[in-house]
């Protein structure tokens, strides 16, 4: 494409066109040349807007008004269409004329539940005074390393169990990128251990798609992103939908407390890829989009490396990069984001299985759901289902953080109780901490008190307690913690991450934070608020946001100075 | 029909009808804010949520269509609780004093009995008053996105977006620029859409209650938007779009905000007569601020007799051909008809013309010659039935903004736009193909497209055989215009021309729009002939979504031509040299009509300087400003013995007048106008005439 193709929106010497002054902003020629050279010959399709914004942000450290206008011109978009997307995502820094660009280096300090409990605020204060003006310190929501709280991310380099000293050393040493894991199972190793045999058999016709769907329908394998929709049924619906069909894989685990996807994608990416390829083959999909949260650069790299190792005739696979938005873990918001838009959830119906990515029927799966496909099929549904405990079936990958000795991803039977999980898998409570309560499913899954320590942890078992297991992110609180404080942290998180589309969530979370920050909670107001949020929000974020707050009212009234009321 | 129950009553829904639409049709009110008729339902405010039996959460009734047997409750305790809470939450964040008379949020709060909100207000943004026409007060914004949809989906101006997220979600213009600095074209569609007055008229008129509302037509361009004037104390306070066939409630900046000229201080209020000894021309005596430097005020009787006597004496001395009249494309059909009748029957000459000469006369000539009708074949809105459409020589978004919205809507539905223009106009952003050819090489380019169509066998042979004549002549004529040969002239690569030719010729329905870029040429008629030939040989005419549409400029340039305000045609395009017609009209008007073609705008100026035309009557036109060669035109006007100018203002042309008659503005009169679609639409007087200004019809 020629430079400006006689584009009158490009400013000439007078900064004018035609008779009058140009309406709105004109394209700066230098910025346009820079954008053109950054984009190279990549597509100017609208769905790549976020990818292109990343290129500019990565190269210049921020998005200048000139670059945004140039990018709009280059992509044949209206300026506002570029701006509104850029302004939605936390990882983009928009700098207009007269504003100061951010320092070259940013240290992001996670302030979500587990990190806050481990002293994130103190760390922020320390860093703000010690790092000086050359480094920006940002408080950010969960970065998915809750088992090593508190966490600070220097550039893209995560500093685990961070202290001001450790962060300072990383800054001083210029360690700003994340090294790729050295123990990630590569293609050769994975294949040598029987990997991709199932996929090859499927392609060769030795195993039928019907048989795989039937087998999945016969197991307890459900969507492990949190919603728990049976995997086999989803595949059947997609397979019977009109072509072309799309696949969208969700590796945007932003639920505070959750880090299982990162764990699996760094340790064994091919097991997931095989599952994805099987899903594509079985459901007749030839376009797969993998959406990886921007907090996980090493996951993205590791996946790209693994994909590059494959020699099969593959469906089209695109790995897309998030840009700092929890809401994009919501399935329809993720689709909007892949399409290059603000991550605002869609109204349903229609469901994404019917009208999803680019308006096509879409199989959307959490990466862990696909990760287990091979094992479930090869080892059989009986094996998988027999893994459960306390009357439940299957396995769950618990991301455990908080006051336990051995936090981390623990693959445990579905239906295990919190007591069993802490004692058998986590080495018990941390020294000096007594069990007080727990989030069974991340920030949105509510809080349960220590006395309810015998509930089987699984889909469907926690509803009556006003909670859910979601992505199985268990955060353990001790008597040194406050449920009220944790609930406020969660509500602030939801207010921060609300997409802002619907009133109950946009206004409700904000008003709830204000009330919860006051010395005395107005419980009646909060109950009223929670009702409209649960009933009338568009998506799960708003609907689940009141859970921790309601849990405090229900299970921890003493923290509010109220009478204990038994559930 | 889908049977379902709403609040215990069995109802029938039409296919695609949403719950809220059925409710409204059957008399049940459901609160709603982000939903409004005419905009895509978005379902974001959640004020319209209803309870659907068997569903976990409430459903937005604006986005949900009933299914058979669905049990819906809009007034259950649960539904009402959420509806009220949504209104209360929004109410807590907007100022107590409303920026709008009919604030929809407070209206619903009253209806639902929502009292003073219990929640604290958000931190409020400061007002953005940077725009001359639109005030932005986002403290009253409820983030319903109606303005965004109006801007992006209705008008497709793409200025308004959402910035930030969560509680920081806000309306933004471009890169969150002040509205006045943004690319906003001030169509005002967002103001019309805003339920709370967060976007409102900067004049403050939105807080005034009108005494009366008068239906009319927009007086600006040829699109012909229907409007209503809101009048208070005999002054227009605002204009709103009506659901007219050419605008569907939409308006542009001119129609919505351009009405204050009626009360401009320079408005002529009394007849004026040139002071003795003051030279004609735009000299030191010419001052629209103070007309009395050049003229003196006179009574209507004196001015009229002076005006008429001057014309009469020239006619008496030299005959009717020494007189000429220029009528107006901005007047009504009735005025145009009466004006040309006055010149023909009264002056006794066909020297009558108007600005169409400088506008689409070439298109009209080509259309009359080729298809026998000097108007469009299909209305603008028909573009929604097209698959492909060409825009050539038209900066549609600027000159016919509302027409352009229908084009942009069509593009959003996947229609393909081909822009042929030496200039990159704003609509090019939406074009699938843009051929930026060298200026004045229209014929070479269009002939090469014709060449490709014929060479590649893309013609509609049946259509050609049954409906056309002279195909072989065209074929022979364009045989030497291969795009490969023309590329050096037009600057367009042959493969691009071929692609465009194929696209246009082979689509199910293709339409052509053109503007002054085609007609205002010495080869303007040829340009139009090429376009007409293109539509004929491909059979892209005579069906929905096909055809030819010269976008007419002034609000009544179509009607004025139809009424005979041109030197070669009597009303209804009957030629003045057609003896039968001359006879008919002579009898009808009881006056012997001249049967020789009269002089055009340009020819009149030549004739004046040649001493052949000595007296003129000019109504609502300003040749001293709008003619191609201003020095020439002004010299001619100065050479007239007698010039009568009828206008609202002391125009440049009035600087050459002997008598100036104060005329009426559109909103001050009754009359009909014909738009670019050739629809005749009626305007009613909304406000009284100022001073001693009189109705144009009366003056003529």
Helices and strands in order, then pairings?
The complex is a heterodimer of chains A (567) and B (700).
Chain A: H1 29-39, H2 49-60, E1 63-64, H3 65-74, H4 79-88, E2 94-95, E3 105-110, H5 113-117, H6 120-130, E4 135-140, E5 152-154, E6 157-159, H7 164-173, H8 187-192, H9 197-204, H10 209-217, H11 231-239, E7 246-251, H12 260-267, H13 269-283, E8 287-292, H14 297-309, E9 316-321, H15 331-338, E10 362-366, H16 367-371, H17 373-379, H18 381-385, E11 395-402, E12 408-413, H19 418-425, E13 435-439, E14 448-449, E15 473-478, H20 483-497, H21 503-517, H22 523-536, H23 540-544, H24 547-555
Parallel strand pairs in A: 1-2, 3-4, 7-8, 7-10, 8-9, 11-15
Antiparallel strand pairs in A: 3-5, 5-6, 11-12, 13-14, 13-15
Helix pairs in contact in A: 1-3, 3-4, 9-13, 10-11, 20-21, 20-24, 21-22, 22-24
Chain B: E1 2-6, E2 9-13, H1 19-25, E3 49-52, E4 59-60, E5 71-73, H2 77-92, H3 104-112, E6 134-136, H4 146-154, E7 160-163, E8 170-173, H5 189-193, E9 199-201, E10 212-217, E11 226-232, E12 235-241, H6 253-257, E13 272-274, E14 295-297, H7 300-318, E15 323-326, H8 333-347, E16 352-353, H9 361-371, E17 388-392, H10 396-399, H11 401-412, E18 416-420, E19 433-435, H12 442-455, H13 461-467, H14 471-478, H15 483-490, H16 494-506, E20 510-514, H17 516-519, H18 524-537, E21 547-550, H19 557-562, E22 569-570, E23 574-575, H20 579-589, H21 601-609, E24 615-619, H22 623-626, H23 630-639, E25 642-647, E26 659-662, E27 671-674, E28 680-683, H24 696-699
Parallel strand pairs in B: 1-5, 15-16, 15-24, 17-18, 17-20, 18-19, 20-21, 24-25, 25-26
Antiparallel strand pairs in B: 1-2, 3-4, 3-5, 6-9, 7-8, 10-11, 11-12, 13-14, 13-26, 22-23, 27-28
């Amino acid at each position: 494409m020629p430079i400006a193709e006689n584009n009158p929106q490009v400013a000439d010497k007078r900064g004018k066109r035609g008779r009058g002054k140009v309406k709105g902003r004109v394209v700066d020629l230098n910025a346009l040349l820079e954008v053109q050279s950054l984009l190279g010959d990549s597509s100017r399709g609208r769905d790549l807007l976020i990818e292109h914004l990343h290129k500019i942000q990565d190269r210049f450290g921020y998005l200048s008004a000139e670059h945004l206008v140039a990018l709009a011109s280059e992509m044949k978009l209206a300026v506002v269409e570029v701006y509104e997307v850029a302004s939605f995502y936390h990882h983009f820094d928009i700098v207009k004329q007269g504003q100061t660009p951010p320092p070259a280096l940013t240290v992001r300090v996670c302030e979500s539940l587990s990190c806050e409990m481990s002293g994130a605020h103190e760390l922020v204060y320390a860093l703000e005074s010690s790092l000086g003006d050359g480094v920006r310190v940002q408080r950010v929501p969960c970065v998915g390393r809750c088992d090593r709280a508190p966490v600070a991310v220097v550039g893209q380099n995560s500093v685990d169990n961070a202290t001001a000293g450790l962060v300072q050393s990383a800054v001083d040493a210029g360690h700003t990128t994340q090294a790729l894991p050295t123990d990630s199972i590569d293609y050769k190793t994975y294949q040598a251990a029987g990997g991709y045999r199932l996929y090859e058999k499927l392609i060769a016709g030795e195993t039928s798609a019907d048989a795989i769907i039937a087998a999945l329908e016969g197991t307890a394998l459900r969507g492990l992103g949190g919603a728990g929709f049976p995997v086999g049924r989803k595949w059947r619906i997609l397979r019977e939908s009109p072509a072309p069909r799309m696949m969208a894989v969700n590796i945007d685990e932003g639920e505070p407390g959750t880090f299982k996807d990162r764990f699996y994608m760094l340790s064994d990416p091919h097991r997931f890829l095989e599952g994805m390829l099987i899903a594509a083959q079985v459901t007749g999909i030839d376009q797969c989009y993998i959406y990886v949260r921007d907090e996980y650069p090493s996951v993205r790299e590791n996946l790209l490396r693994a994909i590059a190792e494959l020699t099969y005739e593959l469906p089209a696979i695109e790995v897309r990069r998030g840009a700092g938005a929890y809401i994009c873990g919501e399935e329809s918001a993720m689709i909007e984001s892949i399409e290059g838009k603000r991550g605002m959830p869609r109204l349903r119906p229609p469901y994404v299985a019917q009208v999803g990515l680019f308006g096509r029927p879409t199989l959307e799966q959490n990466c862990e759901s696909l990760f287990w496909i091979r094992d479930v099929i090869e080892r059989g549904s009986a094996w998988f289902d027999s893994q459960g405990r306390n009357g439940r079936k299957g396995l769950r990958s618990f991301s455990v953080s908080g006051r336990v000795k051995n936090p981390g991803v623990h693959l445990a039977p579905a239906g295990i109780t919190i007591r069993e999980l802490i004692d058998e898998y986590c080495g018990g409570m941390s020294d000096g901490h007594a069990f007080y309560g727990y989030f069974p499913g991340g920030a949105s899954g509510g809080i349960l008190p220590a006395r309810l320590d015998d509930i089987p942890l699984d889909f469907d078992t926690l509803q009556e307690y006003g909670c859910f297991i979601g992505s199985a992110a268990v955060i353990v609180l001790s008597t040194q913690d406050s449920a009220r404080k944790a609930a406020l942290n969660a509500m602030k998180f939801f207010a921060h991450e609300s997409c802002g589309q619907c009133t109950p969530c946009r206004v409700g979370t904000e008003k709830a934070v204000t009330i919860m920050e006051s010395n005395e909670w107005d419980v009646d107001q909060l109950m009223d608020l929670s009702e409209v949020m649960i009933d009338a929000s568009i998506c799960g974020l708003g609907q689940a946001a009141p859970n921790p707050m309601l849990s405090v009212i229900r299970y921890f009234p003493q923290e509010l100075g109220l009478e204990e009321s038994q559930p | 029909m889908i049977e379902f129950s709403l609040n215990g009553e069995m109802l029938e829904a039409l296919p695609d009808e949403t719950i809220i639409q059925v409710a409204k049709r059957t008399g049940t009110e459901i609160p709603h804010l982000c939903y409004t008729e005419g905009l895509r339902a978005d379902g974001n405010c959640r004020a319209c949520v209803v309870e659907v039996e068997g569903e976990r959460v409430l459903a937005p009734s604006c986005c949900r269509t009933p299914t058979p047997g669905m049990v819906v409750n809009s007034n259950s305790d649960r539904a009402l609780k959420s509806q009220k809470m949504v209104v209360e939450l929004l109410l807590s964040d907007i100022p107590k004093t409303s920026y709008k008379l009919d604030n929809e949020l407070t209206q619903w709060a009253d209806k639902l009995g929502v009292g003073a909100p219990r929640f604290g207000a958000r931190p409020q943004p400061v007002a953005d008053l940077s725009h001359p026409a639109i005030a932005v007060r986002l403290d009253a914004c409820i983030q319903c996105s109606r303005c965004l949809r109006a801007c992006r989906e209705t008008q497709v101006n793409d200025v308004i977006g959402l910035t930030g997220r969560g509680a920081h979600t806000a309306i933004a213009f471009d890169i969150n620029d002040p509205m006045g600095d943004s690319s906003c074209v001030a169509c005002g569609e967002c103001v019309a859409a805003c339920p709370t007055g967060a976007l409102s008229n900067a004049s403050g008129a939105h807080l005034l209650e009108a005494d009366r509302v008068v239906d009319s037509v927009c007086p600006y361009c040829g699109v012909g938007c229907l409007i209503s004037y809101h009048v208070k104390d005999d002054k227009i306070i605002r204009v709103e779009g009506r659901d007219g066939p050419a605008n569907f409630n939409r308006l542009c900046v001119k129609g919505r905000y351009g009405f204050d000229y009626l009360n401009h201080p320079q408005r002529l209020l009394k007849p004026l007569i040139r002071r003795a000894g003051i030279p004609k021309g735009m000299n030191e005596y010419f001052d629209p601020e103070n007309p009395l430097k050049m003229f003196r005020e006179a009574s209507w009787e004196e001015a009229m007799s002076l005006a008429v006597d001057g014309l009469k004496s020239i006619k008496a001395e030299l005959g009717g051909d020494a007189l000429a009249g220029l009528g107006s494309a901005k007047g009504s059909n009735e005025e145009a008809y009466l004006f040309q009748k006055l010149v023909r029957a009264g002056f006794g000459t066909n020297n009558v013309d108007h600005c169409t000469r400088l506008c689409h006369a070439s298109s009209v000539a080509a259309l009359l010659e080729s298809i026998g009708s000097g108007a469009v074949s299909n209305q603008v809105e028909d573009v929604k039935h097209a698959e492909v459409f060409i825009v050539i020589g038209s900066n549609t978004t600027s000159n016919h903004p509302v027409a352009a919205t229908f084009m942009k809507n069509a593009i959003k539905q996947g229609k393909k736009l081909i822009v042929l223009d030496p200039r990159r106009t704003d609509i090019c952003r939406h074009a699938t193909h843009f051929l930026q050819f060298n200026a004045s090489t229209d014929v070479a380019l269009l002939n090469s497209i014709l060449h490709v169509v014929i060479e590649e066998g893309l013609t509609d042979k049946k259509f050609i055989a049954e409906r056309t004549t002279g195909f072989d002549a065209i074929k022979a004529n364009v045989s030497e215009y291969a795009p490969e040969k023309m590329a050096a002239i037009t600057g367009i690569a042959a493969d691009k021309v071929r692609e465009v030719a194929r696209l246009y010729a082979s689509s199910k329905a293709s339409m052509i729009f053109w503007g002054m870029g085609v007609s205002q040429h010495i080869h303007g008629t040829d340009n139009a002939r090429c376009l007409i030939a293109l539509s004929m040989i491909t059979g892209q005419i005579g069906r929905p979504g096909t055809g030819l549409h010269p976008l007419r400029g002034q609000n009544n340039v179509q009607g004025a031509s139809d009424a005979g305000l041109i030197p070669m045609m009597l009303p209804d395009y009957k030629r003045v040299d057609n003896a039968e017609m001359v006879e008919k009209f002579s009898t009808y008007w009881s006056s012997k009509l001249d049967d020789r073609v009269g002089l055009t705008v340009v020819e009149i100026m030549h004739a004046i300087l040649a001493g052949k035309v000595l007296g003129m009557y000019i109504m609502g036109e300003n040749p001293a400003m709008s003619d191609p060669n201003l020095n020439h035109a002004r010299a001619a006007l100065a050479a007239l013995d007698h010039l009568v100018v009828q206008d609202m203002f002391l125009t440049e042309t009035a600087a050459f007048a002997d008598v100036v008659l104060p005329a009426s503005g559109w909103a001050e009169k009754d009359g009909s106008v014909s738009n670019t679609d050739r629809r005749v639409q009626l305007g009613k007087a909304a406000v009284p005439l100022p001073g001693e200004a009189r109705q144009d019809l009366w003056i003529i």
